[in-house]
Structure formats: structure tokens, C-alpha cells
Write a structure and sequence with these properties.
The chain is built from 10 helices and 11 strands. By secondary structure, the chain is an alpha/beta fold. It folds into 2 domains: 29-114, 3-Layer(aba) Sandwich (Rossmann fold), CATH 3.40.50; 140-266, 3-Layer(aba) Sandwich (Rossmann fold), CATH 3.40.50. The strands form 3 sheets. A 6-stranded parallel β-sheet has the order 1-11-8-7-5-6. It has a 3-stranded parallel β-sheet with strand order 3-2-4, with helices on both faces. The termini are far apart. The structure holds guanine.
């Protein structure tokens, strides 16, 4: 039976660390870190994510501002909100929740965010800094997974990590972070994707398997090396239930450690964002 890597437990521990940092700042007469979020439209999943982020801010003593804009908001109006947050000295960092409605151009919006306030780490300048190992904001989901591993004392160093999925916000940055010469890096990384021909064999050779495919229960027990650490990034709704990209029940018998869905990586994404916001406040 695999050890459960609980996002709930790790998130609580990291949040209590952040709460203490905030209390320390307040004791020195400094402001609480302030995160703002822009949400465009009425996508229920996005609404739920953003609400969770605001709740997290309250929990750790951050200030937060939620800007909700109607589905019909124009690109120019959205860019004006971004410019206002860039200028606002009270806001340490902010995010524009993705995906945006189809008529809006997310690349242009992300480019308009001041890289110093880009706590999602999505601005090309920050992606470049991450790839070069320079100080920056790390994308929240990969960052959260590293914080989860750190909480459980699992080091990627020397391990063969297989990351399945090459998205700009999860798979690709995770592969870069795991291969960096840094504390939670030093793994030997294979980045696999939909065109990978020997996926099953590759996964079987993974000491650390990151499933970020976006297909329910895609990774089955026969793809997992006995004792491997399995991180499941998937959040798929199937018959009204949330399931991951890993077939959790069968994987439990083979893996050495595994994240559940829900209650795993998702909660750590939110911790990644809080940590970035704390760093943003420190740097201002
Ligand atoms: N949509 C899904 N994940 C994310 C995220 O980490 N940041 C933003 N801005 N939008 C998202």
C-alpha cells in the first residue's frame, strides 16, 4: 500500500509557515502581502478556483482583491485593468485567471503584466528566468509539487523523473525545475507527451512519475514501477466526481507514495501562489 502524499496536510503546514511570516511582517510595521485576481466571465471551475485563492489569502492573513469582469469584456478593457494593477502600489502581485473567454487574447494579456507582479510566473521574462535558474516566481502547480515533496522529505536528486504532459503551465516547467541544479531538482528528466511512442516502458522506468495529461485514469498500475512516487496533476470531472489522471485504486497497490485527487496537488497549487505573493511583498 502506497503512502498517501496529502496535499491537505502539506498545505496546512506551509500555510502555517506563511501565517508566521505575515505576523512577523506586521510586527515590523509592514503591510500584509496583497494578492489581486482578475476573473473574466462565468466559467464555474474558474470561479471555484479563484474563490479558493481568496479564501487562502484570508487564512494566512493576506489582503486580497477580486476583480470580476463580465463575459463580454473587451481586450482593451481587460488590459486597462491589468495596467491599473501594475500601477497600484498596494498590490504586491496579481493573476488573470485562465482560460479567458474565446474572444480575448491571453498571450497579450500575460505580456502586459508587470513581471515583478506576475505571481503566476507566466510572463515570458519569468519563464526565461526560471529556465536559467535566476530568482523569479515559479509557476504555481510545479512549485506546489516541489513544496509537497519537500514537506514529505522526498528529494528528486538522482531519480529518473518522467513527466507526462508538456503544457506551458505544468509539464514543461516541471521538467525544467526537476532537472535544475538546485535543492528540489537534480533529477534525470524525461518529458513525455501524446506523441511519445514507448510511453508505458518509459513510465515503468520512473522513480518519480508526474501525470499531467488531462485524461481521467490514463496512468494505470501496469505503467508504474513498484515503489515509485506518483504525483497526479489531473482534475477531471467524471459522472459528477473528480478523478485524477492516475487510476488511484490500482496504483495504490504498486506505488511507494501517491497524491490523491482531490486533496493532492490541487491544494498545493494554491500554496505555490501564496508563496509567490509572500516573495513579491518581500521584494517591494
Ligand atoms: N487556470 C488554471 N490554473 C491556473 C493558474 O495556475 N493560474 C491562472 N491564472 N489560471 C489558471
Amino acid at each position: 500500500m502506497a503512502q498517501i502524499l496529502s496535499g491537505r496536510e502539506a498545505a496546512q503546514a506551509w500555510k502555517s509557515h506563511i501565517r508566521k511570516e505575515v505576523a512577523g511582517r506586521l510586527a515590523q510595521g509592514k503591510r500584509a502581502p496583497h494578492l489581486a485576481a482578475i476573473l473574466v466571465g462565468e466559467d464555474p471551475a474558474s470561479q471555484a478556483y479563484v474563490k479558493g485563492k481568496v479564501r487562502d489569502c484570508e487564512e494566512v492573513g493576506f489582503a486580497s482583491t477580486l476583480i470580476t469582469l463580465s463575459e463580454g469584456t473587451s481586450q482593451a478593457e481587460l488590459l486597462e485593468h491589468v495596467a491599473r494593477l501594475n500601477r497600484n502600489p498596494e498590490v504586491d502581485g496579481f493573476i488573470v485567471q485562465l482560460p479567458l473567454p474565446i474572444h480575448l487574447n491571453p498571450d497579450e494579456v500575460l505580456l502586459a503584466i508587470d513581471p515583478q507582479k506576475d505571481v503566476d510566473g507566466f510572463h515570458p521574462e519569468n519563464v526565461g528566468r526560471m529556465a536559467l535558474g535566476l530568482p523569479t516566481y515559479l509557476p504555481a502547480t510545479p512549485y506546489g509539487m516541489l513544496l509537497l515533496l519537500e514537506h514529505y522529505g522526498i528529494s528528486p536528486a538522482g531519480k529518473h523523473a518522467v513527466v507526462v504532459g508538456r503544457s506551458n503551465i505544468v509539464g514543461s516547467p516541471m521538467s525544467i525545475l526537476l532537472s535544475r541544479n538546485s535543492k528540489m531538482g537534480n533529477a534525470t528528466v524525461t518529458l513525455a507527451h501524446s506523441k511519445t511512442s514507448n510511453l508505458k516502458e518509459l513510465c515503468q522506468s520512473a522513480d518519480l512519475l508526474v501525470a499531467a495529461i488531462g485524461r481521467p485514469k490514463y496512468v494505470t498500475a501496469d505503467m508504474i514501477r513498484p515503489g515509485a512516487v506518483v504525483l497526479d496533476v489531473g482534475i477531471n470531472r467524471v459522472d459528477g466526481r473528480l478523478v485524477g489522471d492516475v487510476d488511484f485504486d490500482s496504483a495504490m497497490d504498486v506505488a511507494g507514495a501517491i497524491t490523491p485527487v482531490p486533496g493532492g496537488v490541487g491544494l498545493m497549487t494554491r500554496v505555490g501562489l501564496l508563496m509567490n505573493t509572500l516573495h513579491a511583498a518581500r521584494h517591494r
